[in-house]
UniProtKB/TrEMBL annotation:
One of its GO terms (molecular function) is peptidyl-prolyl cis-trans isomerase activity. GO terms for cellular component: cytoplasm. It comes from Ancylobacter rudongensis. Pfam families: FKBP_C (PF00254), Trigger_C (PF05698), Trigger_N (PF05697). This is Trigger factor. Belongs to the FKBP-type PPIase family. Tig subfamily.
Amino acid sequence: MQVTELLAEGLKREYRVVLPAAELDAKANARLSELKDKVRLNGFRPGKVPVAHLKRMYGKSVLAEVIDQAVNEANTKIIEDNGFKLAMQPKVELPQDEAAVNEVIEGKADLSFTVNLEVLPAITLGDFKGITLDKPVLAVSDEEVEETVKRIAEANRPYAAKPDGTAENGDRVTLSFVGSIDGEVFEGGSGEDVPLVLGSNSFIPGFEEQLVGIKEDETRTVNVTFPEAYQAAHLAGKAAAFEVTAKMIESPTEMEIGDEFAKTLGMDSLEALKEQVKSRIAQEHNAQSRNKAKRRLLDALDGLHQFDVPPTLAQQEFDGIWGSVTAEMENQKKTFADEDTTEEAARADYQKIAERRVRLGLVLAEIGEKNNIQVTDDEVTRAVVERARQFPGQEQQVWEFYRKNAQALASLRAPIFEEKVVDYLLELATVNEVPVSREELYAEDEDEKAA
């Protein structure tokens, strides 16, 4: 086998490989000899079929198998001899001319092909102990707990029938409705026994206001226009008419927030409910706090590591980002001019974001490898179980999907690995906890919005 380097430019490599016909023939004969003891042919005793006869019958198919194996061996040798870490699978370009291919298959010519590689860059890791960052923190206040309990109570407020009255804001109206656009009933526009609290702004803008004053068993036509940014693109911006019937009208009743109310929610007491609410709010604050600290950590890592990224990985990342951006803009019927930019400028910005993401991914992977940070099977299993819980009634199907789909399983493993590396780095870095207000904790920073 002869290997000649044709290109060494940045992270791209190209090689020409020549496999002599004699070498391929020798490998094919060795393979045929192995088959001799396994093949059963009429007229020959087991193990006594001449290799020459087998070659006449199976020579071309065996040689094709040998060529495929030899190409893989050549790729492996190139990678191992040069100590490459690949960014992508090798791209092999075999002869396309039919006559040339036939000559190789018939053993009359050497096999010559090219191998194109994209390799990972050598990464020199920075000094993580030199990273200093602020982590915003927020303690849960009694006021937050009280407000949340009140919202829970409001969401669970009992209602009493109001058969002789008219619906007002705050009343709950049970509706049946059928929606149409240009006289045609549309999918998803109908409902039966749908409860709606007037004034809650749960429905399309303008819908609830037109039901104020409706009486039980009364039918009204409600005319509305779907918002331009409506999630169902085929309805966005369209005018629709709904034939609405009020089947029941109920008014809210007084409710005391105490132990009895807490017991309706499965808690032993109001104090126990407050403790659970406080714990949940604390989890939300801590998650937000960590997200901001992680963003600042990633910014610091990006500043410590500047290197070229594999072009194909960057392009794939860009394609994913750009596809999401353009789909969202189309759904919202926006243009780049509406965003005060141009398509060319937006492409350049998102290209930088794609390269940053790839670079940080490579850095995190290198840190994990150098420090033996691994994701255990138990951690992946817990992630699958958690994912299955998100689909009540379909847990078994979700479990089987991940069990049989290695790529889907990897999509669960990757974020676990990333979080473990982030935990490791936050332990090394100097992290200053800075008390902030709720508004500050949940405010979207300009750099976070851009990223």
